[in-house]
Amino acid sequence: MTAGGGHQPPPHLEEHPRESSPYTELDRAAWSQLAQETSNPLRADEIASLRGLGDALDLAEIQEVYLPLSRLLSLYVESAGKLHREQEAFLHQRTPPRTPFVIGLAGSVAVGKSTTARVLRQMLAHWPEHPNVALITTDGFLYPNAELQRRGLLQRKGFPESYDRRALLRFVVDIKSGKDEIEAPTYSHLVYDVVPEEKVVIKRPDIVIIEGLNVLQPARVREDGRAGLTLSDFFDFSVYVDAGTTHIRDWYVDRFLRLRETAFRDPTSYFRKYASLTHDEAVDEARRIWDSINGPNLAQNVLPTRSRATLVLRKDKDHSVRYVRLRKL
What is the pLDDT of residue 55? Predict the structure, then answer.
């Protein structure tokens, strides 16, 4: 107790007095306490099936990181539903059903954002309300390899200009327009290309998670100086999975080596040529790809969008989340 009788926050919850930031930062210990009374809905086999290459996803990570995040998201979704009902009352009319709650999830190649997206989808679907949760990756909206080749962009795959941004924006607009059924293209990491004959169909979802490198990109400025719409204009919540660039580069190299022993050996794999590399050759090739493509894309396009996220998950060297930054309301 202070002399005036007020409670002081624990040291790990105090904000740095000399810093001015739109975020509240909580270390892992503080964050994990926020859902102590919430039970973990995932079984051990489910956790194992959600784990990506190199990810430190275990029961502790679920309990201490993703359970509080799932609880926070539930508060946001409940708040959106309440606001929808109050708007109906304010307008004195019955409005269309509430549109899906859209979560954008961004981060670098190899940082583990796909695992985060899968975990959130699984956890949110376990809520008592059993919501219909759809997960869409933006890889399906990449231009096909033939088109990237025609445009001279095959070596810039993953950069903002390699996506059909109009189609991706239309997809999100359709979600937020409340369409009953929406299609999205699919992408095969095995053949490293869009699969034209396959579509993902989502029907009346309650929540949609949209995961991708560039989902938090700001709107492009048109030739007339005006800015158009962008994906994040339609997000209700957004997450950026963050880590030190050196760590991410190491994780990328490690993942490349693991894939060299597994998926790259598939005769149908686009990366079959890498399966015969020696260990040292594979390390050199992975570093070359990172330094020429993924690293520059992270520095130029992905990392600058971090400040646009509602919440940032900052990972440590071992892939575990070290602290969380949440935008103030």
Answer: 65
Instruction: Classify residue 7: in a domain, yes or no.
Output: no
DSSP string of 247-315? Answer: HHHHHHHHHHHHHHHTGGGSTT-TTGGGGGS-HHHHHHHHHHHIIIIIHHHIIIIIGGGGGG-SEEEEE
- Cα torsion 273, 276, 278, 283: sign: positive
In a domain, 2, yes or no: no
Instruction: With respect to residue 205, please indicate whether it lies within any of the assigned structural domains.
Output: yes
pLDDT one-digit tens code per residue, 70-117: 989 999 999 998 998 898 889 887 777 889 999 999 999 999 999 999
Number of structural domains, the chain? 1
Look up the domain containing 168 and give its range. 22-215+229-327
Q: Which residues of the chain have a pLDDT value below 70?
A: 1-19, 37, 51-56
pLDDT score for 5 = 42
Return the pLDDT at 282.
96
Question: Long-range contacts: 92-101, Cβ < 8 Å, 24+?
Answer: 96/178, 97/178, 99/175, 99/176, 99/177, 99/178, 100/134, 100/175, 100/176, 100/178, 100/205, 100/206, 100/207, 100/208, 101/76, 101/77, 101/206, 101/207, 101/208, 101/236, 101/237
**Is 276 inside any structural domain?**
yes
The token pair that represents 87 in the structure block: 């708007």
